[in-house]
Every structure is written in C-alpha cells, then in structure tokens.
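Two proteins were folded this term; both appear here.
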Amino acid sequence: MGPASSEARADRADDVLALARLAAEPESVRAILAWLTRRTGGLAALIGPTGTVLATPEPDPGPDTPATAPAATAASAASAASAAAVELRRRGAPSAVLGGEGGRCVHLVRLGHGDAAGGDEPPYLAVVGPDDPRCGVLLADAARTLALCWRLEEAERARRRVESAEAHSREAVLHLLMVGSVPAAQRIAGALGPALPALARVYVIECPVRRRREIAARIDQVARGRAWIVPCPVRSNHLIALVPPGPKGEGEKERERADGLARLIVQRVPECRIGTSAEHPLRDTAAGYEQAIHALAVARGAPLRYAGFGRHTDTTALASPEGRLWALELLGPCLRYVPPRRADPGPQELLGTLGSWLSFGGAANRHLKIHRNTLAARIRLISDLLGLDIGRSLAGQSTAWLALRLHSAPPSTAETPAETPATPAAPAPAPAPASLDALLSSPAAELWARAQFGPLDEAGPAAVPETVRAWLRADARLPAAATALGISLPGARKRLARAEEALGRSLLRAPSAKYELWLALRASGSL
C-alpha cells in the first residue's frame, strides 16, 4: 500500500474520532452538521423524506469557517437538498449523488432504515456543493453516528412532549380543585395516577427551578406514591404538593410527620422555604393553598425554614343570610351576564377570572392561560358589571373578594344565622339584602375584625401595626405608604415583613391577606 492510502486511512480514522467526540456534545446533530460543513466546504443539512429541512448547522464563528454566504445562497442550497431528498426517496435508493439546482452536486445518505414499529421514514443527510469523490466515504461514516444522535434527540423531544402534556393535565386537575370541581378533577387524576386523596395537607415549596424535580421525587418517595405534585403554573420557583395524612387517630403524629417531611426537604435543599396548611377535604383545596402561602411567608424568616399555618380566622362570622343575599345582589350583574358572542366568557368564566385576579393579580394570565390583554379586558368588563374598581382600588377588590367568599360558601355555613331559636314558632321572613357597612357593623363582625389585628397589636412595636394600616389606606401600595409615614421604602417593607411573621399571613406576595385586613379595618372604623 502506498503513502496515499495510509494517509487516507489516517484521515478517515481522525474523522471517525471527531464524529464520536461530537456525538457526546449537547445538540450533537447540529454540531455534526456544522463540522461536516467545515470539513467538506459545502452546506450540510438533515432533510426529511418529504423535503422538510429538519436541521442545519449551528453558527460557528471559528477561524475555519468558510466565508458566510448570503441568506439567499443558503436558502437556495437548502432548496436543492430538499428536492434531491424527495427524488432519492422516489427512487427508493439509500444513497446517491444527484445534480442539484444550479449545477451543484448533492450528496445524499439515508440515516438507517424505516422504523418497523412506528413506520417512520428516516431522514437524509445531505451535503450540497462539494464535487469530491471522497465525500461519499465521509458521509457514510457520519451517517451512522448522526442516525444515533438524531434518534436520541427525537426520543428526548418525545419525552418532553409527554412530560409537558402530563404537567398540563396535572395543572388542570389543580385548577379544577381550586374552583371546586372535585368530580372532574378526580376523573382526570384517576387516569393519570395516583388517585386524589380524600383529605390532604397542601405544601407550597419555594425552591430553585432546577431542584423542583429532585424535591418532587423526594416527596413522592416519602408519601409512598400517594402525593399529588404539581409545578406551580404561576410562579416558576414554587412546587405544590397535596400530601395525604397518615392513619386515623394519629393527630399529633401526623403533625410530626408533616414537619418531618418539610425538615427532610430543607435539609437536602437548604435554599428551600416551605409552608404547609392544615388538613382539608378536596373541596377546600383553595383554602389549603392560601393557608400554605401564608405559612410560606412566615417560613421565609423562620430559622427552620418551614412553617405550618397556625391561625384559623375566616369569614364565617360574616356568612349570615343577609351576607349571602348581599353577595348575590352584588354579583348579580355578572351572574346574569349574557356574552354577545359564543366565544366570549360567560358568567362562570368571569367569576373564575375575578377569583384568579384577586388571588394572583397581574400573574392571573399565567394561571388562566390567557393573554394579558385578554385579562385586562375581562377585568374592565367585570368592573363595569359590578360597579367596582377592581383593577386598582383595594376597596373594590376587598368588596368583590368578600362577595365571592360568601357566594361560594356552603349553604350550611352561609345560610345559618348567628343566633337561631331552638324551636321557631313560625318560618322567619326572608332577610333583606344588607349593605357592606351593615354587614361589617354586626357584633360578630367586630369580634372578627379584632381577631384579625389582635396578633399584630399584641406583638409590638406600635410602628408595625401602624405601617400595616397606612399600607391598607394607600390601596396596598408600598411607596405611597412609606411616603405617608415619612420612612424609606426598604424600611416600610421590613415592617411589613415583621407584620407577616406576627400575623402568620402573607401580605406582600399573593395570595395576600390584604382583603381581610382591609375589611377588618373598615369594620373597626379605622379607615
């Protein structure tokens, strides 16, 4: 054998080693195509059997890169490769050198054989431009490596599609639970697995995005595959988990078990913060989520980095028959709304939008999966229907929030008066709808209002509760509150953070307790 033959074998060995090295890189298909483009001096591309351009070289600013051709020239080369791939498929040949458009040669090699199981036809490796007989050997070697890399990337894309579809389905289950559609959520969850637990404690884990998968696997392991885990659709650094309780009759042990799971997570991922709710039935998942968010606000400043929800104040004191009628009257224009077009949102969708807006503010578009302009248009429509400024006014938002709570309250709670005679002599007349001020002036409402601010007033110093009151009077706008108090913006934020710890509630991040506190402030006459 002559020196030329030895040199050719050495070059081929170097090429095979280079291909093996490129196969281990991220986006190996594009990397190999870029290497072939430099190696041959032509354009390398991956073409589908119908002529679709599947992949082209990634930009390479290195010194070996040939002079950049105009975009029109590159498009022309890709067009020639597509036409040649369609022709080769028509012939049924695995490889060929065809004359492309403009007299350029197109070297083509099919990447393997058709998929017997799925019937998918393999793509073609095409190199446009070089008129070198040695190009065929190079493409044959490259095709074997490229075929494996392509199948791996296709498998990874398929895995991501399946994972994305499952994540969206799980997110849909969570959304259904949040709006109280338990049967529909159970049907979807039953198909995905695991089945939803009848009782669950809600965990909200604030963590780096890259650690969510690891934390989810740990929760699933500890819960023995019975937890329902969903990445938060609104905040990318939140993970939501519905964890079922242990055996019945182990109340104290269950609390220790919940703390143990949170402790285990923060030990493995120290940058985590975890808030947990009390146990709730599925129909109260939204309440459990709010409790976990409030506990998370406390956990951010807690030495253990996790906290459970410890306060159980709610709007039950306001859920009288008069309150329910007031809510029905206030929401009536929205409930009776008839959309002018079929594609426009109806009453239930508008109420869902209102609830999401009050819970997540500007992030509600991510929760509802709608454009932010669509969200803004719906909020304007709801404001017009209700006669409230729910876009900017805390008073309007708090009024709408209370109306939604009373409207969705179970009849056993909302329709039972605070004091019912043991044996009524005659059916009581239907109560007349009350005003908001009348609802908030009842003795039960006054007790409820004092309970809202009680922990804050007892914790001291006085500057902290005064900052909260100034913040509420300023429509929950921190800069305006800081100006009214004559303090700096960071100083006002620190005071509100201390208020969160004292109240055990979230103020600065949604869902916030600002609506309840504003109503309590109005009930106490401090506005």
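Next, the second protein.
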Amino acid sequence: MAIKDLSPSVLRDFVKSLGWQSLPDGIVDRLYVMHNAAMPRRQIVIPMDQDAPDYAEACELALSKLADLQGMKLADLIQLAAISRDDSIYYRVTSDGAVDDGLPLSFAASLLLGAEQILLASACTVLRPEAHHPRLHRAEATLLASHARFGHTERGSFVVRVSCAVDAMETPSVPDLAHANESFVRMTMLSARNGVRQLVRAIEEDSLSRFVDSQRAAASPVVSSNLCEALTRLHNDDVRNNIDMSFRWATTVALPQDAAAGESIRIRSDYFGRIDDVRRELGAVELDRDDVFIGTVEHLNGEFDIEGNRAGEVVMALLLRGGAIIKARVVLDQEQYARAVAAHLDDRALVRVAGRLRPGRQPRTLTDVTSFILIGPGPG
C-alpha cells in the first residue's frame, strides 16, 4: 500500500501504538504532532488532511524519521502501518532440508487451504464450541473468511500472512456467543491462537491423552477435529517442515492480559502426526462409508500396459453430503479409467462414483468401486 493511501487517523494510531502521544497544540494547525517522553527532542508530524498536495511527501518524511528511530526499513514500517488495524496470523515454513528452491506447488496450495480452514474452524468454535463441527461453512464463518486477505510472503523465507480488519464485520447475534460485545474477528483469531497453543503444549508435555479427554468432556472445547485437520494441511511429508505460527494484533483493540504481542508458536515436523491422532480422536467416529459421490477428476496416475491400455490410480475431489470437498484416491479398471481421462480433459465434467470411502487423512481412499459414470458438465 502506498503512503498516500494511509489515512491520517491510521498513521496517528499506528504511531501511538509505538509509544508516542499526540500533542493538542498541533490540532490548531491541522497537524498530528506526536511526542515521545523517551525522546524529548524528537517529534513526528502527520498532516490531518489527506487531500493536501504534499500529504504523501510529508508522511514519507515523518515515517522515514520514525523508521530510523525504530531501526527499521521504511518499506517494512509502511507495511506494518497498513495492517495496523488488522489481526494477522503468520505461518513461517522452515525445514532442515533445502527449501531455497521453492516449495512443491501442491504443498503451497494445501498451505493456503489450511490457513483458510483454521479461520473457519476457529470462527465456528467462537460461535458454538464443539469438539467436532459437522460443517464449517456457517454463514458467519464464511463471511469472516471472505474479509480475510492473503499477504505477501516476507523476503528471505516462506511466510504466509492472513489478515482481517478487526472491525470487518458485526459480531453475530447467536445464543452461544460468550462475549457478544467483542470483535468477532478478534475472538476468532484468539480462538485459533489459544487452540494451537494448548495443543502444542499438550504434545510437548506428553499429556495428549488427558488433553483429548478434557476436550471431549468440556462444555466449550478450545480445539476441534476441524482445527487439527487444518493444521495437518500445513505440513508436507517430503519437505518435513516445521511451522512457526505468530500473530500481530490490531492496535485499535486491547489484547487480553494472557495474549503476548510478540508470541510465536512452533509446530515441529514430528508434531503433525500427533495432531492427526487428535483429529481422529475428536472427530465424529469415522467409519467406512458406502455411498454414491459426485466429484471431479484432479490427477491421472495410472500406467499403460503392454497393449497401450491405461488403468490404475486417479485422484478425485469428492463432494460430501455436508458440503465439504475432500480429495480421495481410487483405483480404476481400463474402462473406468478411459472415462476418467475424458472427465479430466473437460474441466466442466462431473463423475458419479459408487464405492466405499475409507477414513483417514487426505487424500482418502475410495475402494470397492461398483460404478464410475461420466454425468456431463458441471455449472459453466
């Protein structure tokens, strides 16, 4: 965001969050004159009129001075000012292996999907705390996710930032909401932070069994199976990555005393298997499901035989009855595989497949396929 797009009140509040106070005398001249008792000879001056011809130049001068005092680059300070009214979650990917050449594209996609699912699961926990949410796409949770923005990765590392203005939406009027007068965005972000923090602590203290039992028995559990599933999307078995999860809070809403501003939670690579165990424990009992599913063909992994016929594994995106979309592997014979190829070539094509969906991490496994039928294009 350019300096000219930052309003005077945003800049004033941001500078105040760094320990500066506004002097009332400057208001007469349409200026925010900021004073810091620790630096009595320094002042930061911000024009109050954004449409003034020299507004951008004056603000750049003020922020350049502030950046020097903070020991920061001007560009980094401007970015912090731009999101100073947002609550943000940062996901830093680290690994003992080499990731300088980039991340697998499929993992990058999974990372973003997991970040979105963490928001949805946390919002649902705020609205109605449960150990397992049958569906995540409640209207209020979906609306919050629609207000969230994906931020640029930071230089020199793989960092995903997901931000949402703390006042992006009104707090929903639902009976189970514990703090109806607080920001729904802030409650959702704190729910994500508290859930991950307690989950990681239970793993590190080797008290996971007691923790799972406590969540099952709690009237308002802080961790759901949905949150655990979202966290597993942040890990790639080949990359063997850690995730450093940190938070930056909007300066306009006070934090509770137990929430530290600079807190970071490290989820080590070997924790993700334990987190998936918690997902299974907290989830509704997963059984084999014999059903008919509608889906699309995402990947063709079959092999050719000596006669040039192809059969084997494909990966599908299946739509479940509750509205969720999951990935599943299925092994097809030659005739079924030919239909899968036709469906894969037409990005509007849908397939109806009957079989047994096995529980577990995605991609799940679909076995005992009794039919695999191309049913034509989906919505255009």
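The two ends are 35 Å apart (CA to CA). The chain has three domains: 3-82, 86-282, 289-377. These notes refer to the second protein only.
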